[in-house]
Each structure stands twice: as C-alpha cells, then as structure tokens.
C-alpha cells in the first residue's frame, strides 16, 4: 500500500515538474519571439523612408527675394513610383504647391506645379525634391510641408516641415565683439613677437660679450706667461758664471 502511495506521489511530482518545464519553455520561446520581432522592427525602421528639410528647419529671407525650400529623401531598400508633394499651411488649410512621382532611382520625376511662383529644382540623382519660391511676399511666411510616400515600402510615408520667415530687411550682424576679440588676440601675438625679438637680441649681445671676455682672458693669460718666461730667462742669465 505504501509503495502505491509513494508511486502516485512520484508521478504527481514528475507531472508538476514537466508542466513547469513546459511553461518555462513556452515563456522562453515567447521572450525569444518578442526579441526577434523587436529586431525586425528596428531593421525595418532603419531601412524606412525618411524625408529631411535640413538641420535648421527654417530660413529668414527679405520681402521680394527668392528662397529655396530644401527637401531630400532616403531609403535603404530603394524607391519605386515615389510620390511627393509640397504643401503650404495657410491658417490650417493645406494648399498644394506641387506634386510629382519618381518612377525609379536615377529617373527624373514627373512634376505638376500648382503655384505660379514655385519651380521644382530637385533631382532624383541626388535624392532631392526641393523647390524654389519666387518673389516672396509677407503672405508667404509660415510652414511648408514636404511629403513623400514609397510604394516599395508598402506605401510607407514621411513628412518634414520647413518654416519660412519673411522680413523687411535682414538684421545686421554686430561684429563689435568679434573685432574686439580679434584685436586682443592680435595684440597678444604682437607682444609675444616683440618679447621674442628682444630676447633674441639680448642673448646675441650677451654671447658676444662672453666671447670678448674669453678672448681677453686668453690674451691676458698669454701675456702673463710671456712675462714669466722672460723674467725667468733673465734670472738664469744673471746666475750663470762667467767663463
């Protein structure tokens, strides 16, 4: 009877362990699957279409001038029938400026202009879809959106906003501080040069004086030796006996 009870207990223990192992295996598989999905999403995002209007994202221009509205696109997996457009945000209403389609990489786009003062100046060879706005007025200030959609990436799209600021005249840059800094640096450099020249001249004269002193010492020591030799010879002559 005891053996049967122990056998049942052992079976229950093994079943419990097996279920725990099965659950841990399933949870481990779930973790691995989530990691793989995360990596795939990261790779997909890294290869996805991206539109850029530059680092600044804005420009300040004078009334009556022309301005470039920059925009470029990038995609690691390439493009096919890439659709793009430029729109102006007119107090909440998005006005179309131009739109076009790039059939493939290296092929120039088919562009339709819907604004009389807009000209397409981009090129698919440079992944550039910029436009030029002529004769800017104060009414042109505001946000301009560059949009692109790539069917090759399951119609993934991306957009970027460029802000245009129109002024009556450009602000003059105050260069006073720059001039002061340049003057101070120039003065310091000039002072260093003068000090180095004076140091070189002083060292030159000191070296010449040292050479003269050495020559004087050598000549004086030679004279002393000569005088000592002459006096010694005279003394020898006086001390020698007459024949």
TrEMBL record:
The keyword Glycoprotein belongs to this UniProt entry's keyword annotation: yes
Membrane topology type: Single-pass type I membrane protein
UniProt biased composition (Polar residues): 218-231
Keywords: Disulfide bond, Glycoprotein, Immunoglobulin domain, Membrane, Signal, Transmembrane, Transmembrane helix
Subcellular location: Membrane
Any one Gene Ontology cellular component term annotated for this protein: voltage-gated sodium channel complex
Residue ranges of every copy of the Ig-like domain listed in the record: 64-163
GO biological process, one term: regulation of ventricular cardiac muscle cell membrane repolarization
Membrane-spanning residues: 177-198
Record's keyword annotation contains Hydrolase: no
Pfam families: V-set
Protein name per Swiss-Prot or TrEMBL: Ig-like domain-containing protein
Naturally occurring in which organism (per UniProt): Ameiurus melas
